[in-house]
Structure formats: structure tokens, C-alpha cells
Amino acid sequence: MLETGPIERFKKVGNYSSYCRKVPTTWLSNNKRKGKGNSKNGNKYLSWAFAEAAEFARRYDDNAKAFFNRKAAKIKTTVAYAALSHKLARAAFYVM
Fold first, then answer.
1. Closest by alpha carbon to 3, among 36, 50, 35?
2. Which residue, 20, 23, 29, 83, is most buried by CB atoms nearer than 10 A?
3. Per the domain annotation, does 36 fall within a domain?
4. Is residue 84 a part of any domain in this protein?
5. CB 23 within 8 A of CB 86
6. Residues in the chain with pLDDT < 50?
7. Res 41: pLDDT
8. How many domains does the chain have?
9. 17 CB contacts (<8 Å, ≥6 apart)?
10. Three-class SS of residue 32?
11. Residue 36, SS3?
12. pLDDT at 83
């Protein structure tokens, strides 16, 4: 909460997730990828904190473990970790 600052500056939960670096950056034009960028925008400390929280939640919370296992069965485990940390960032936004 101290790292985020006033939560009112984020209009939507997606803006907060982007600030936490939990949303992939895409530049599209005419449905064609036009490069990468903005991967270092946002707060690196919140990104790290939510990644650690995702690992902790996966180990000790049954709901988080079930979510992670469902994702990991379909996609790579690193993407499953990212999805879990994104979900935790969204939850933190609504709690604040």
C-alpha cells in the first residue's frame, strides 16, 4: 500500500495491474505486432512483491494452488505464475 500511493490515481483495475508490471505489453496495428516496449514501465518492487506473493499463495492456499494447477496443466508454469500474480494484484486493488 505504501509503494502504491493513493489508489484513486488508478481509474481501473487494469491500470493498477499494468503499473505493477503484471500485464504484457503489446503494440498492435492492423492486428500485426509492431514491436515490444514499455516492459520497464511501472513499479519493479510491486512486480517483485506480487511474484513472491504468488509463490507463497501457491504453496499455502488451496484455492490458489488449484488455480495454478489448472493453468499449469494447459500452459507453461512461468505463465501460470504470472497469471496467479496478476490475480493477486487485482485482488489487492479491490482491497485498497
1. 50
2. 20
3. yes
4. yes
5. yes
6. none
7. 78
8. 1
9. 23, 86, 89, 90, 93
10. strand
11. coil
12. 94
Instruction: Please check whether residue 1 lies inside any domain of the structure.
Output: no
Answer whether 37's CB lies under 8 Å from 49's CB: no
Tens-digit pLDDT profile for residues 70-84? 999 999 999 999 999
CA angle, corner 30, sides to 28 and 36, nearest 5? 20
- Residue 43 · residue 3 · CB < 8 Å: yes
- The per-residue pLDDT for 38 is 66
Q: What is the per-residue pLDDT for 40?
A: 72
Per-residue pLDDT, 70: 95
Tell which residue, 78, 58, 77, has the closest CA to residue 67.
58
Say what the pLDDT of residue 37 is. 66
CB 57 within 8 A of CB 85: no
Domain assignment present for residue 2? The answer is no
Question: Measured between alpha carbons, how far is 44 from 67 in angstroms, rounded to an integer?
Answer: 25
What residues make up the domain containing 24?
7-95
